[in-house]
Amino acid sequence: MGKALQGVRILDFTHVQSGPTCTQLLAWFGADVIKVERPGEGDITRSQLRDLPDADSLYFTMLNHNKRSITLDTKTPKGKEVLEALIKTCDVMVENFAPGVLDRMGFTWERIQELNPAMIVASVKGFGPGPFENCKVYENVAQCAGGAASTTGFDDGPPMVTGAQIGDSGTGLHLALGIVTALYQRRETGRGQKVLAAMQDAVLNLCRVKLRDQQRLANGPMKEYPQYPNGEFGDTVPRAGNASGGGQPGWILKCKGWETDPNAYIYFIAQAPVWKSICKVIGKEEWITDPDYATPVARLPRLMQIFATVEEWTKTLTKFEVMDLLNKYDIPCGPILSMKEIAEDKSLYETGTLVEVEHPTRGSYLTVGNPIKLSDSPTEVTRSPLLGEHTDEILREVLGFGEREIVEIRDSGAIGVVERLAAE
Ligand code: CAO
Question: For residue 27, what is the enclosing H or E element?
Fold first, then answer.
């Protein structure tokens, strides 16, 4: 079966997490992704957080599936020549260098356009144009600057970052959409264009509901927040603990075993249409008609007390028993799943969301597959490339260099000594 992005060739000049998540998605949709790495070290994540000596880290392997790797020192004259040849033959360049790096390398937007006017140049940067545009940015910096940290955590605690990599992987997702959109537009115009996803912007986009709340604040307290009715609201959106960001109140409740199991909890949502069922399941049928509890508006000032009552019930059952019981009545809830529990969930393997991958130097490892399923473009997850594994293949087959030219490139040092030895 064909792949959605078959025939699209990506010059993947990305590193660390944000850029690689984007190009990995494009590879899963069938693009030919050629990762350009510095000779010797390659993408810095190959050696970061290593769990096995001399094997590419899980950090790297889990972000670079289905790609090919070429090593190239793009600051040498020969390296520049090869990069130029790649620019001429690829449809998209994706990069997430610090601001100014590409220009310093000699590959300005104008130069790239000269070489290939149809090339789409897609970039992740920490910030868009403005006071911070020249800053280097990592995940948590973006979470803080995009409004996520100030609105995450509990009211009486410090700002908090979240484990979900909304700054890196979240921006990679945004960039991938920008790239396919630009490819679509190119079909009409024949021209390339710049695509920018700033990490601050991507995080803010994901925090859209909090900017909504900033404006609601001017019109009175937000009644679904735990600060209502007894706490204080200042002039900015407060941290809402585990309150729901939508119109249905929710909270995290203890389940059986919570004293020893840090994840024996369930997210419970007091959805209005199933209020009667909730009352019946937890044994509080009198709340169905009690005017203090019967309507959503009446319940708002009592939410914490209601959750505490429901918790007395959830504490008598495991989170999975609660899940089963509540779902019988269509009461929305979600067990707090640990990474161990997720890794053991067979259904996630069946859908390809979790995948076991074989790797020549680290053996078998578990990874997250493509979370986006296309019925006509199935994803087969293949392992990440070793550093420079496809250097010769790309020089020969993609760029059409002959043996003499390849030897010349090697002898110039542009593809690096280690890779040269590996190739011999
Ligand atoms: N050949 C020769 N040189 C190369 C090369 C290659 N193949 N690949 C990279 N380099 C050089 C660059 O030219 C640059 O050199 P100069 O500084 O002399 O111009 C150098 O490597 C370092 O690039 P960098 O500044 O991007 O890397 P860093 O480790 O210092 O910073 C990061 C990393 C992520 C903070 C920065 O790249 C950045 O802010 N990127 C944009 C935001 C982003 O994506 N952040 C998410 C990171 S994931 O958490």
Answer: helix 18-28
Which DSSP category does 223 fall into? T
CA gap 390, 370 in Å, rounded: 23
- How far apart CA 310 and CA 293 sit, in angstroms, is 13
Residues in the chain: 424
Atom of ligand 1 nearest to the CA of 14: 44
Predicted local distance difference test score (pLDDT) of residue 416 = 85
For the chain, 424 residues long, the average pLDDT of each consecutive 10-residue run is: 95 98 98 97 96 96 98 97 98 97 97 98 98 97 98 96 98 98 98 98 98 95 90 94 89 98 98 97 97 95 96 98 97 98 98 98 97 97 98 97 96 76 45
Whole-model pTM: value is 0.96
CB neighbour list of residue 269: distance below 8 Å, 6 or more residues apart = 244, 248, 249, 250, 331, 332, 333
Burial of 273 (0-12, 13-18, 19+ CB in 10 A): exposed
Strands (E), 173-315: 194-198, 250-254, 265-269
Question: CB of 63 closer than 6 A to ligand 1?
Answer: no
Which residues on adjacent β-strands are paired with residue 10? 33, 92
Nearest CA to ligand 1 atom 12: 101
Q: Which residues lie below 8 Å from residue 29, measured CB to CB, with a gap of 6+?
A: 3, 4, 5, 370, 374, 377, 379
Counting DSSP H helices and E strands in the chain, the numbers are 18, 11
Give the nearest ligand 1 atom to 139 CA: 49
Beta bridge partners of 365: 357
> Is the CB–ligand 1 distance for residue 141 below 6 Å?
no
Task: Say if strands 32-37 and 67-71 run parallel, antiparallel, or are unpaired.
Answer: parallel
Is 122 strand, coil or helix?
A: strand
Given 12, 43, 91, 168, which residue is catalytic?
168
How far apart CA 98 and CA 109 sit, in angstroms, is: 15
